[in-house]
Design a protein that fits this description.
CATH topology of the largest domain: Nuclear Transport Factor 2, Chain: A
Helix content: 40-55%
Largest sheet: 6 strands, antiparallel
Distance between the termini: 15 Å
Shape: globular
Length: 156
Amino acid sequence: MGARIRALSLISRSFIWVIIRFDFATDGNHMKIIFAIIIALFSIGPVTASTSEKAMLQAAMQRYLDSQLVDGAILDLDLKSGEIRKLYPIESHPMILTLGENFVLCATLSDVEGNKSTIDYYFAPRGDSYIMFRAEIDNRKPLRKLMKAGTVKRFR
């Protein structure tokens, strides 16, 4: 919750700073322009705490994914064959799921032949950030089971 409030506070302060800078930089019809900006922002929809939290979660996933790359690929060990596959990130999924107070984020990976794989990252809040505590590659069955049971839900 603290991260949500800080993000909204930062957004609010940034918006006020823009208005003040704009006010001093203009002469004349600045109030009409400021009013138009405010109307445009409200027509887009409110910036909610969940929107900022979603952005923070997506950034946490991207930072973790980037930190695990070896020559641009995620290495995946097949425990049965001993083969190590190189999987390249190609897409982050926008949907975020909740698991109690934790979150599940997904991305699509591809090998050099173009075969796609899905990776599910499980994140837990830690202070003002998030920590990844589990990753599953091409193992959606347990996640689907949790979704069917209602334990995992879409984050709104």
